[in-house]
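Can you make up a protein sequence with its backbone structure tokens?

===
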Amino acid sequence: MNLSNAQIAIVGLGYVGLPLAVEFGKHRPVLGFDINTARIAELQAGHDSTLEVEPPQLAEARHLQFSQRCGGAQEPARSSSSPCPPRWTRRIGRT
């Protein structure tokens, strides 16, 4: 498998997903996805209300695009991974 042409999408731009998307976005095209419209708008404006990433770091991620809609990538995903369990699993005691 040749990973040099692989497309990267990060689903969920919270305390794990956003820093990951920013770091990858400094070097290669990345689609950052979140269902929260306000979150996408603030990130597109260069601001992170969670303070996980500073504005200069967001600006450095020149290859990072944000979307709240599915279908932003041109090719279907070939692999996916969740770096952490969704928050709802923590609320019911399954971590």
Remarks:
- Residues 12 and 18 are 8 Å apart (CA to CA).
